[in-house]
Write a structure and sequence with these properties.
Structural class: alpha/beta
Strand content: 5-15%
Mean pLDDT: 96
Helix content: 25-40%
């Protein structure tokens, strides 16, 4: 079997144009992958096509070789990830089994999920509390949110007070048994990060996510050493080597690699193994399209140090369910792992064509006061 052709799709999700890849083989099988890159959908698409010489004509079962050739050619990490996902999708379909069966086996039939994207409301304690109640009513036992508005570097006393009021309102609404994960989107300098982290401690969050960039390893380690809240980080890191540096410096207690930015399924499994050696849990980042979700589920089902999975499926644009053949089954805060061959997802090309690329589709989390509404 050989890879014989590639086709790309950009789908105009209102808050982030999604970039999808379809790999064809000379035996009639095909596989789907995702190369979504916020604010750079066409750039991602162009790199997938420009790097064709490194994967066209290859056996899709040769995932390690294709990954190596693309990495050595300095292909964009999104390209590597998309081609890797599509190859695994083809392999699963060729063998008639879901991907998790061939990357470690089925450790769990469903994975615990936390809701994100649910706080599409005014930045007030009352609005956040009402939306949080809706999340719990859907059966979720964990949720994540960024209460910090468009903050950057530091915050005024009044803005800190408002952020804490939002967290307090959500905690009071959902009760003590629901896990709250606080997202900071690398907004702060190290001093502000510690100050705000200490103020958050009384609300018992499950983690404090990226108070500074994941690449500020020394800063993350220093911040974490002064707090009782676990630090979660890693969504912007790319390879096992980068995660090894993060982990060996004890800069994060939970890691969050994203299949689209960490080199796809092949590299994600290696990153999970590195984390396991450090006794650190895996909570994959997933703020992309439905193919990224599908890849995450295959990894989650077959990885022993998996902790919890991020999902926007119930609270993002309805477009996510419109373009897929099989909607994810989410019940009581758990996602059923599909048993269909490959990634278990098929995209509807005719429906995707109804939502073309739109250059206005992006979020500005640092310049817009109501970015959390996500253009919805």
């Amino acid at each position: 079997m050989r890879i014989s052709d590639v086709k790309t799709y950009i789908v105009g999700n209102p808050w982030k144009n999604w970039t999808f890849v379809k790999l064809y083989t000379d035996e009639g099988l095909y596989g789907w992958g995702e190369a979504t890159q916020h604010r750079a959908a066409k750039t991602a698409e162009a790199n997938v096509l420009e790097m064709k010489r490194y994967y066209m004509g290859r056996d899709p079962f040769d995932v390690e070789g294709i990954w190596f050739e693309l990495q050595r050619a300095n292909a964009a990490i999104k390209t590597i990830a998309a081609i890797d996902m599509a190859c695994w999708d083809i392999i699963g379909k060729a063998l008639g089994v879901p991907v998790h069966r061939i990357i470690g086996g089925r450790l769990r039939e469903r994975v615990r999920a936390y809701a994100n994207g649910w706080y599409q409301a005014e930045r007030t304690p009352e609005a956040f509390a009402e939306r949080a109640r809706q999340v719990v009513d859907r059966g979720y036992t964990a949720m994540k949110f960024d209460p910090f508005g468009s903050a950057w570097d530091t915050m005024s006393r009044s803005e800190i007070a408002l952020s804490l009021d939002i967290v307090e309102a959500v905690r009071e609404t959902v009760g003590p048994d629901v896990e709250l994960f606080i997202e900071a989107h690398r907004r702060f300098n190290p001093v502000s990060a510690v100050k705000i982290g200490r103020l958050l401690e009384k609300y018992d969050p499950g983690w404090y996510e990226e108070p500074v960039s994941s690449r500020q390893i020394d800063d993350l380690a220093a911040i974490g050493a002064q707090l009782t809240v676990p630090i979660a980080a890693g969504e912007g890191l790319h390879t096992k080597e980068e995660f090894e540096e993060l982990l060996s410096n004890r800069a994060a207690q939970i890691i969050q690699p994203d299949p689209t930015s960490a080199g796809g399924i092949t590299e994600m499994k290696k990153i999970a193994a590195v984390a396991q050696a450090h006794h650190v849990l895996l909570a994959p980042h997933n703020a992309q399209g439905p193919l990224c979700t599908a890849a995450c589920l295959q990894i989650d089902a077959s990885t022993s140090n998996f902790f919890i999975q991020e999902t926007f499926e119930d609270f993002a644009t309805p477009l996510a369910s419109e373009i897929v053949e099989h909607r994810l089954q989410i019940e009581d805060g758990f996602i059923e792992v599909p048993e269909r061959p490959g990634l278990g997802v098929e995209l509807k090309e005719e429906v995707m064509a109804e939502y073309p690329y739109d250059e206005s589709h992006f979020l500005d989390m640092y310049g817009s006061e109501d970015w959390q509404k996500r253009n919805l």
